[in-house]
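Example record

One chain of 794 residues, shown exactly as stored in the release files.
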Amino acid sequence: MDPTLLKVRRAVQAAIATLSSSTDGVQLSETLGTIKRYLGGTENQVSLKEREEFTHVHFSTFLQGLVSNLSPEWIELLTSDQQKELWDSFFLEGPADQAFLVLLDSIISTGPSFRLMKIISVLEQFLQTGGMSALMWEVCHQQAQAGSPMLQETLLNKVVCLPDHLCNKLHGSNLPIFFPQNYFPLLATEIIQVLQRIADSLRDGLDCSISFVSQVLGKVCVHGRQKEILKVLMPRLIDLTMADCIWQRMCWRLVECVPDRWMEAVVCGFVQTAPGAGVLSRLLGNLVVKNKKAQFVLTQKLLLLQYGYATAVLQNLIGYLALDSLRRSLLIKVLKELLETWGSSSAVKHSPVEQQLYVSKAILICLAHLKESEVESNSQELLTSLMAGMKCHLDSNLPRIRRLGMIVAESISSRISKDGPSLRFQYEDDDETRELKSLWMHTSPQPPVINLPSVCDDDLTPYDMSEDKELKKMKAPVYIRDCIEVLTGSEDVDKWEATMKVLESLVRRNSAATREVSLELAKVLLHLEEKTYTEGFVGLRQRALVAVTITEPVPVVQYLTSQFYSLNYSLRQRMDILDVLALAAQELAQPHAGGKKKPCSAQSPCISMLPGADSSQDWRRIVDERIKSKTRRFAKGQSLAEPACGPNRFSSVAGHFFFPLIQNFDRPLVTFDLLGDDHLLLGRLAHTLAILMYFAVHTVVAAAMGKALLEFVWALRFHTDSYVRQGLLSSVSSVLLSVPSEHLLEAMSEEFLETQSWLADVAENDPDADCRRLAWQNLLLMENLLKKLRSVPS
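Predicted structure tokens for this chain:
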């Protein structure tokens, strides 16, 4: 071993032995002074190599020795000045990360005593003298030099949870500095100090990592302390980034380096705290474009899945999307998704009024930020959304809902018909109305535009276009693989549009080729976004995905069902998955003749599931027709004959559709929670399961599916959302229609009786008229099944 390093080790060991045994104050002070040389705090300097050996290898051990020997008798051997210079200084002047860990671990493991109070006093001094900024600065350097991840994780937990540790230990004797309302503002001040040192390092051309500071910020925010830390941090960042490009870029990195699991808490805190969209844009930069988690939070969760934020937060968020050319595509996307929700009859009927007001405000703010060119390029979609949304709002029996629809419809109409007549309604003019109108008539200040020298029009020579000929229409691909290449890589929008229009027919005509790339094509279609306006794009994409699914059901369905519960999918994409599964199940279940699909009959009609349509209403009419055929003794005249039976391709794959969907509904994820706020998606899931159950009639797995579905219904039977309850009641209808009656009353008798009792209660007491009707319908069907079984001779 290196003699120099061995010398340091022996010195530390001798010092610890002396501190443990000596009762001579002079000897103790000399021993402490000898060791303090390794911190560089005395005139007798030691070599850099010895100092590094001490701080990296022996410092924590020595601090633990200091703590273990601490007692009233021992400390009295030193004068007051010696205590500060030769005991306290080791914790206040040495490596801050090691000192902090030893102090906190000692507090946690020490009972009420003089030692505990002394350590707490030193920890208080540590915080008051910039110990936290020194600690974070040391870790930032360690990260730049690939330090220990385990040590950094330990430090992160201790730094963020310090108030919890001290509160649990001291209870009523806790010091004010350790209270959360005092500690986290102090931590914010220390963060600014660290960022200042990082900025100085960058100006000097030195590398330095910011990720530990980002982790501290993220973990504090996710622990619910955004208010305490951001009330100090945000004003300082706003001032420092105003005219300093290094601080701006450093602030962007500060947020970008926050781990995904904490990104939501940080982003929400910034959006709520920023005094305007321009400031938010300066602090976040293009985070929404670079980070998928931030994009989900800003464009989905804060707008479509939550609705408790103030109007100023919406203005911050949407204004932020509008303030940069790279982000404006997301502004258009957000507006389309908001209009899709606004135009959904199911959402209008079942969503809380407060959520509908929130969505309406967001739409109006988006419209206010649209440029004329953007309005013109999206005018057809705006008009379609206007017609759908206006109808379902005006059909509502709530005056407030109707008024919201009128105001949003007026604003859309005004933007579309800039120079022509627009819609005008009569409604009460109150504070809410005036606020809504002000949102789309007023936009946040736009960033200044730099005027560059331009060529005057008069200097340009007109180009002769009289001989120009119209370009031929783009030839569509004829091979499946070519379609995939166009959809994933081509920048030719005409070729892309032509591919979308022929894709379904190509898939259906080329089954063998489709099977080779079915999974790849399904992934492309599920994530496909509209590159340019294509008429009927949503329907084209959906029909193509259905065609792929029925061509190669098992792998494609396994992929779709697994993605339904995966992270980082939008609400729209999850609903797309449900719609495709239901449509594919319907087509697979239809009888075929000569290889061609039969037209849909009353018993298996086409299910309309395009966005904005309430597919469950169409499907309920199907069930009503079949229930009538099952209860024909109460009908007048001759009942309808059952349609001709044929091969049911759905029978062999029904389990792949059904069971993966029903298995994980009660497992909350980061991006959505079916048993929490995502009522609309849960309702759609219930209706989809009902549809799959319906088409599983005469299949081997129908009984197992029915039992699982009744358990699903039983778990959610008291759900507060009427749309979810309607889906559950539709599921009961499907079970009664598809599971053999003998099996229902023998193998599932207990579930049958429990369901019957619940249905009776719903039929009498449910506040929703559709729920009561469905419950009575199911009770009637149950009674008919019982009578049918009793009439069969034994």
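Notes: Residues 444-456, 468-472, 593-617, 632-644 have pLDDT under 50 and may be disordered.
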